[in-house]
Amino acid sequence: MIILENVKKVYNVGSVEVAALNGVSLCIAKGEMVAVMGVSGSGKSTLMNIIGCLDLPTSGVYRLEDRNVAYLTDNHLAEIRGREIGFIFQTYNLLPRLTARRNVELPLMYSREPNRRERARYALERVGLSERANHLPTELSGGEQQRVGIARALAQEPTIILADEPTGNLDSGSSNEIISILTRLNREEGITVVVVTHSTEIAVRTQRIIYMLDGRVVADKPPGASFRKRVWEQ
User: Fold this and answer.
1) What's this model's pTM, rounded to 2 decimal places?
2) Taking CA atoms, which of 23, 40, 90, 175 is between 20 and 30 Å from 168?
């Protein structure tokens, strides 16, 4: 489903070139749940932006479902982001004056999807928030707000969910709840999940851990004690 071949991403900062990705090659199969780990500045967010079609590689090839992303138009990329990829953010990004249901409906309104109310209701039901649909974000806990964020992603019926530090602002109980939802969506519904996290407790619940350092993939294997030891000794 997701194939990167020698992908590089270089940013120009003044007269200096900064390589955020430096020859990344990896493959994520349909239905996998993968964690991406690494210290700040290792290239995790840049990798997620490219996988999510929010940015394009400077060089190398990115194929999404056999499509070379470099040859897609801006409109096609926007359609992919709106229909195939669901994004979950650390900061929730909910509009404070809209109820949970209206926040979930919002992306569907922009893409003019039919049955927006019903799809939003069902998405909230899938994350256990049916009874909180008419509450404002300020009336919800942090964990509930993140569940609204997951429902907003699910309302688009994506085949891929990209979660960038989805538990970074949550306590351990809420974090466990969020990762349990993502795990269930992967195992029961077959949604491909890629999650950026600093938490080994979350990472070991995925099928693979990709560890990045200095814009490169330095380890890529199933979670296990030997892997964790190797990672944290970097």
Assistant:
1) 0.89
2) 23
The tokens for 149 are: 């964020």
Alpha helices in the chain (DSSP H): 44-51, 74-83, 100-110, 116-126, 142-154, 172-189, 200-203, 225-232
Distance (Å, rounded) from C-alpha 6 to C-alpha 60?
5
- Distance CA(3)–CA(93), nearest Å, equals 29
In whole angstroms, what is the distance from residue 36 CA to residue 192 CA?
14
For residues 200-214, average pLDDT: 92
Number of CB atoms found within 10 A of residue 204's CB: 15
DSSP class of 61 = E
- CA 224 → CA 78, 204, 219, distances in Å? 37, 7, 12
* Residue indicated by tokens 């070991």: 204
Please count the residues of the chain.
234
Question: Both tokens of residue 124?
Answer: 């909230």
pLDDT at site 224: 64
Element (H, E) at 53: none
Question: Residue 229: pLDDT band by 50, 70, 90 thresholds?
Answer: very low
b/e per residue 10-39 (b: at least 16 CB within 10 A): eeeeeeeeebbbeebebebeeebbbbbbbe
Distance of CA 95 to the CA centre of its chain: 20
- Please provide the CATH number assigned to the domain covering 31-54+74-232: 3.40.50.300
User: pLDDT digit string (tens) for 29-71?
Assistant: 999 999 999 998 899 999 999 999 999 999 999 999 999 999 9
- Report the alpha-carbon distance of residue 211 to residue 229 in Å, rounded: 12
Tell me the one-letter amino acid at 188.
E
Contacts of 205 (CB under 8 A, 6+ apart): 179, 183, 223
